[in-house]
Structures are given as C-alpha cells and as structure tokens.
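Morning run. Coffee first, then this:
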Amino acid sequence: MSGTLPTTPSFQTLNISSETNTSSTTSVSGRVQRKTQGVQRWSFTASYAPGTRATMAPLMAFITKQQGSFGSFTAKLPVYSDTSGSLVKATHTMLVNNVGGYPVSTKSIAVDVTPTGVTTGALKAGDFIGFGLHNKVYQLVADCDLNGSGQGTLTFEPGLIATIANDETVVYGDVQFTCKLTRDVQEFSAGMGDQVRYELDIIEDV
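And here it is:
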C-alpha cells in the first residue's frame, strides 16, 4: 500500500463507474443467454482545477510514487464516501448482527446500531459501505431503516467477495476505496502562467 490520495488539491469534477463482467451467447434461433461473472469494480475519473506548480506538486509526487499502475493506495471521495442518510458516524456504531456471520455472495445482511433508537432512512440507497476486515466497497440498493432496538437490514451490490463475521464493523462514513492507477503513463499538463492541469483515472484494486 502506497499511502492515501491527497485531498488537497480537491477534485473539480468526478465520474463514478461500476464495471461488471457479463458474458453472453446467441443461439442460431436468436435466443440470447447472459451470465454474470460475479466480478464488479468501481472506477473513477477525476479532474482537478488548474493550479500552480506549488499547489499541484504534492499530488504529482504522490502519483509518481505509485510507479504507474503498480502501486495500490486508498482514496476518499468528496461527498460520496459519507452517507446521505441520517445516521451519524461520530456517534453511532454499526455491526453485523448474525451469529454465524455471512458467506461469500450474500447481498443482504442484518445489522444492529448503538445507541439504539428508531431511525428512518438511517442509510440511503446509493450510499457506499465497507466492512472492517476486507477492503471491497459495496453500494446500498435500498434504504436501511432501524427499529427501536437499532436493528435493520442492508441490501447491497455486488455480493460479498469475502465472508464477514458476527459483530464485524460496518463502515458507512469516511469510506475508503483501495485503488490503483489505470495507466502506467501519467501526464501533468503545464501551461503558461504557472498553471498545471491533471486528470486522474483510477480503478478499485481488491
């Protein structure tokens, strides 16, 4: 792991893509059969506002340190790494709530939150989540409401790529993506008036 992507300078624009591998075959009759390979990764294209050499130098140094697509690093997305729901990371802890844990490919799990209390829209569809013991990031496909005992259900995609245990931490705020650069050649464009431009292409590395 080669550090954490600097948050300064910040992104000016951000494109988020979900990449899923699907194979299809077409019979002589024209019938199409599709099968998912069960592999999904997030990829991102981020552009930075033009900055001075001094402003962009820490970012340039970090990118050089990655040695092209060889290095792996963590990145926090502005806005999207935090929940859009009502749950507050600083005061509420969410844990997996199933004695036997959950196996690979599971897409819906029970959770409990402390302190307890009824919470509508605790987490929202579209939020990103992670788990304490592996670095894959998942996305909720349905809202999560909590009952009076702080219990709720998370439904997400893709299915789990690793088993999770009872009482394992669910990360729903400050979610970190483990990434690598998609290209070995990285170009910073230096213009007149000490203005440097850069566009970043990264993909999830799990």
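The longest helix spans residues 53-65. Good start to the day.
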